[in-house]
Amino acid sequence: MSAAAAALRRLTFSREVVLLGVLIVLMIVMSLLSPLFFTVGNLLNTSRFFVEVGLMALGMTLIIITGGIDLSVGSNLGLSSVALGFSFAAGLPLPLAIVFGLVVGTTAGLFNGLFITLLNLHPLVVTLGTFALFQGLAYGSTGAEAVSDFPDWFAYFGQAYLLNVVPGQLFIFVVAVAVVWAILSRTRFGRYVYAIGNNEEAARFSGVPIRKVKIAIYSGIGLLVGMAAVIYTSRVYTARGDTGLGLELDVISAVVLGGASIYGGSGTIAGTVLGVLIIATLRNGLTLAGVPSTWQLFVLGVLLLVAVFLNEFFRRREE
Amino acid sequence: MTEARAPAEQRGTSSGDAFRRFMVRPEAPALVFLAVLVVAFSLSSDKFLSGSNFESIGISVAVLGIIALAVNQVILCGEIDISTGSMMGLCAVAAGAVALSTGGLILPLLAGVAVGALCGAINGVLVTAGRIPSIIVTLGMLYALRGVILLVTGGTWITGVPEEARVLGTGTVLGVGFPVIILFALFLVMELVSRHSTWGRNVFAVGGNRRAARLAGLPIDRTRFLAFVLVGVFVGIASIIYLGRAGSVQTNTGTGLELQVVAAVVIGGTSISGGRGSSLAALTGAVLIGVILNGLILLGVPGIWQQAVLGALILLAVATDVLRRRFVGDKT
Amino acid sequence: MSLSDDPGAGGAATVAEAPAIFHLRNVTKHFGGVTAVEDVEFDLRPGEVHALVGENGAGKSTLMKMVHGLYPPDEGTLEVGGEAVEFSSPRDAEVAGIAMIPQELDLFPELSVTENLFVGRHRPRTRWGTLDRTAMRSEARERLRSLGVDLDVTSTVKRLSAANQQIVAIARALVGEAKAVVMDEPTASLTEREVQQLFRIISELTSSGVGVVYISHRLDEIFAISDRITVLRDGHHITTALAEELDAEELVRLMVGRPLNELFTRSPHSSGEVALEVRGLSRAGEFEDVDLAVRRGEIVGLSGLVGAGRSEVAQCIFGIHPPEDGEIRVDGEDVRIHSPQAAMERGIFYVPEERRSQGLILPFSIKNNITLSILDRISRFGFVPRAERQTADRFAKDLSIRGAKVSEPVSRLSGGNQQKVVLAKSLAREPSILLLDEPTRGIDVGAKSEIYRLIDDLAKEGKAILLISSELEEVLSMSDRIVVMREGRVTGEFKRGEATQENVMTAATGGRDSSGSDNSREGVGDD
Predict the structure, then answer these.
(1) Going by DSSP bridges, is the β-strand pair C481-486/C299-304 parallel, antiparallel, or unpaired?
(2) Strand B172-173 and strand B176-177: pairing?
């Protein structure tokens, strides 16, 4: 087969192209389910939701590439959100409260990273424990209360429009995507991440600083969670202890849908972004069509199973 | 005939050796911790050490403990199941619906168990034939089943479950509540199965050294599949007890239970990596959680801190397991 | 050195005419382009102990893996009990009565002795259909007693000593009604007394008609216990003879006996100062009291058999695991190396033994494999420059890496070229001390000589090289000095010219040592 034909074939069947196709089909289906779907206003508003999931999914991509997992991101979101809101309510100036929220998110991620690397524990169990711990801390320290009297300018993060049309956080997301993509595909850190995910032992023998990289990716997702928390809190204008529950499903599903193997070693930012878009479209479309959120979770759950199964099925076919 | 004397440490003739042998068991740290806690709570609250308090601990622990006994088997063979919370909700819905329409006790029980077994079988098939990691399967099922509950109930609660179906939750025998009796009965059954059945021993082998198990020709897929189905069956049984106690089923029944179950198993001493542990560990862990939560209430700690305590306990349990193994010099 | 007064042999006279338990006839096996075993004949008679000897890579384990059903021979047949068979899995072999006891024992550490004996086998049941544990325990005790051993059958296997675990593995084979038991290096971690015990057990086995294949490098044991000895060399069958017809010297000669061609001629050189020095290095269970020194421009060959602890020493120097005792000195300075990065900072680089699982990241491109070790040096502000490709191209050219462009996955290359990629990765770091672990294993002759030339050039440039190799010819051709290890200790040191195949092999196997030193039989892992 000639080089051009081979290149075309690669393009046609590349994972990202397939996902793009799925996304387009999905959007068509959703617009059939509800006439409200395919309006510029709706599409742009969808992006508000997916920025939060998307930021976390960027970090989760690196973690899953190394063969790990982080189940605590949803709870961490809640924890960072209340850290922001309640420190503000306690008197801290809002800019500092925002920084505090970011710090708490990053520290929570760092805690995960240290526990996993220093004690050599499986990320599954550790993040299962922190899933409960972070949620518990968030809920326990705030009870059923919520903080809502933020100054007007706080809405900027979550509710503003740039150029009168584009939601502000989309800009943040695009920047984040560019940064994480650059890190993963152009820096040595990204190379290390892929090396660890493909063959940790060979990486060790090549001098890759495995512990440092792992601590960095878990802390990194913590920072991204913190950012998502700021945007989320700004968007709904409330800080509550039970925020973020169940988001880990969206995040992990997005990464897996995007083509990352759950066993580690592969995954791309482009794929993850498409995965996030698909999930956001799904959620938005279903909401507009009046489907309750529990049902949506059902669809998401099934989607996750199907995505992982197909991933591994095709991967094994290739071998 | 020549003899190879086993090293002295195994002959356990003195009481010091018996103590060492006890401390080496997987449940030992949890049992000791439990004893310490019971003493501590009794000293700090005079309400702790009463029959009725123990009774209430026992009952709240029953649902958790029964499911933990089964999830214990899944973890022992090297997998995990975090779908049990939604599973229980669905089984309770099934049992409740049958109780409302046909009444009696047996039929609702069978309905709950059947639904549970079916869910467990789906988990099992996806893990073995589908080759999907169990964490993903059960995570997906956790949410999928929750959606099924909504689908089936249409969002409405099931209430007014007739008395006869609630017997296993509210009834007593010789003053001891059914939940506690069933818990202990199932504990004995699991101990028996674990020690005396081929499947029970295979679970340890498959979780302990999967490579050697494969070379020895053990039916690895069948062993794991049955473990998942067992979880479904026990969840079904637990759902009838829950139904008995609560008398109704909400759409969010069982939420969060899966975490408590895994916590119970791990805190009790079963190793998360498989191959090591026991039914006693699962039971101890469940009781320990019940005692801790009960003690916290008695001490006036607000219930909203429960999740945090649970999470901290899980982390503590896995950390001490690692440290204990390093200390003992286990290279496993 | 005589071992014991009870050789434990089953009685060579009765063995001679009995029909074979199994018989490998003219078997050949290839792996990829490499022939592991060619036209080999091997049979095992009831009640005999048949030793299988040869250097590393001679084909012993390949041969026994075929008997044990891991893979079939490409040519030739396997007969069991006189009939040709084809095994599709180890389970088939076990059902046919052939049991294997590998060095790692394949037991279940968390289960009891009794359970280990019965895993995967038919277990006695009670009337109710449950497992009859009392019956299982007493059968376990019976089996152990038939071996002349008395153990607490309820104890957990992981708490038993290595010797007792091995006994459990043997008993497990018996529960499976094995007629043939293959033991691979059974005495590697045993003390002298435990070896005696093992011999008594083997004699119990053979007196009941079971045949034992005894794979070992310990020549004194082989002469003490075996009835017949088969020697393999380079995948070929050299001889099968009665043990009483051979002696140690002749055995060594048969094992190694090629005419000693210089594989490669070293350039004349002079050695500089001591670059790497190691004193008293120890790690429990791996190696003990190791002294080594390598000068600049010198190639020190580290010889010995598999399991001697050589890779462990090198990995310790490279920072994979810290030493528990002893010192490491680089250029005369005491250093503590706690990670591979620290070792690399000191100019040390280790080329691992297992190319595919330790040396390469197979899905990565050739370029990415080569530059993995120097990313921190070539990247600017963390970014990997495009010039990376030129660097990789340069190495590919210098080392004549052929078969694919540097942007293609390294899995496409042949073994020899893959090894060059691993070497390129290590050279990219510009180390001054190179630890090479079996650098030419599994590589064709052409690639081998290229690598020898490369190593020679590196020495000429003044690098200090530690060459770990199990191939005697390679070690003898390449090294300026040879250090021999056996079971974790240094047992011999020879200068170029003094060393011969025989004396190196003797130091490696613990046969009669011309220096008369005490070859202690204590295994390193005892407590």
Answers:
(1) parallel
(2) antiparallel
Q: Is it the case that residue C262 has pLDDT exceeding 70?
A: no
pLDDT tens digits along B75-86:
999 999 999 999
Q: Which helix (H) or strand (E) holds C277?
A: strand C274-283
Report pLDDT digits (tens) over B312-330.
988 988 888 777 777 665 5
State how beta strands C49-53 and C34-44 pair: unpaired
Which CATH code is given to the segment(s) B51-317?
A: 1.10.3470
Q: Cβ separation of A192 and C382 shorter than 8 Å? A: no
Nearest chain A residue to B148, by CA: A298
Residues forming a β-bridge with C75: C28
The answer to whether the Cβ–Cβ distance between A203 and C368 falls below 8 Å is: no
Question: Distance (Å) from the C-alpha of residue C63 to the closest C-alpha of chain A?
Answer: 29
CA distance B51 to chain A (A): 30
For strand C98-101 and strand C180-184, is the pairing parallel, antiparallel, or unpaired?
parallel
pTM of the full predicted structure? 0.81
**Domain layout of chain C by residue ranges:** 18-97+178-257, 106-171, 274-509
Q: Considering chain B, what is the average pLDDT of its residues?
A: 85
ipTM for the predicted complex: 0.84
CATH topology of domain C18-97+178-257: Rossmann fold (3.40.50)
Find the CB nearest B272 among A122, A263, A298.
A122
Residue C80's H or E segment, with its range, is: strand C75-80
The angle, 0 to 180 degrees and rounded to 10, between the axes of the packed helices A123-142 and A73-89 is 30
For domain C274-509, give the CATH number.
Answer: 3.40.50.300
Helix (H, G, I), strand (E, B) or coil at C471: coil
In DSSP notation, C39-78 reads: EEEEEE-TT-EEEEE--TTSSHHHHHHHHTTSS--SEEEE
Report yes or no: B137 and B122 within 8 Å, Cβ to Cβ: no
Q: Which long-range contacts (CB under 8 A, 24 or more apart) does C341-348 make?
A: C341/A207, C341/A209, C343/C317, C343/C318, C343/C319, C344/A207, C344/C373, C344/C429, C344/C431, C346/C433, C347/C430, C347/C431, C347/C432, C347/C433, C348/C276, C348/C317, C348/C318, C348/C431, C348/C432, C348/C433, C348/C434, C348/C435
| C197 contact residues in B (CB cutoff 8 A) | 2, 4
Between A137 and C443, name the one with better pLDDT: A137
Nearest to B2 among C106, C110, C200 (CB): C200
